[in-house]
Amino acid sequence: MTAIITLDGNHSVHASNLGMGGALEQIGLAISDVDPRLARWLIDKSNRTGFTMEFDLRGLSDDRRAAFWLGVDRANEKFRDIGPDVGPSVYVIRLFHEKRDIHGKAVDKQVSPIDLDDIWFDDNTKTA
Fold it and tell me: Tens digits of per-residue pLDDT, 37-79?
């Protein structure tokens, strides 16, 4: 079971669903004060089980991508002092953090916007 998140510049992070799910949950929790709607969507996405998980960050607005990366920074800081025996979620958070600064040639690919109202596990759809 794999997860693939496409980043800016057409780079991507590949990980197990388990590691990615935990990372997305931590990133969502880290930005709940900044962008509650994106946070709720990321946490919901982290709870979805299936063979694959895939989405493209370029489908988010610039502000929401900035909030996502802030969440990566905050989650990375939260787990910064954990030693080498960390779980898969922390490895994925660290991988996001490292890949963020890798800039490649942007690909002029049309990307579908991410629908943050596509929630499976949260009955509260009134969050802004």
Answer: 999 999 999 988 677 888 888 899 999 999 999 999 999 999 8
97: three-class secondary structure by DSSP: helix
Starting from the edge strand earliest in sequence, which strands make up the sheet with 2-6, in order? Answer: 12-16, 2-6, 52-56
- pTM of the shown model: 0.81
Per the structure block, which two tokens stand in for 49? 């089980």
Handedness of CA 18, 22, 27, 32 (dihedral sign): positive
Residue whose structure tokens are 């660290």: 94
Are 53 and 20 in contact, with CB atoms under 8 Å apart? yes
Instruction: Answer yes or no: are the C-beta atoms of 13 and 97 closer than 8 Å.
Output: no
**Per-residue pLDDT tens for 88-118?**
899 899 888 888 766 544 555 667 788 888 8
Residues 108/58/100/36 CA torsion (nearest 10 deg): 160
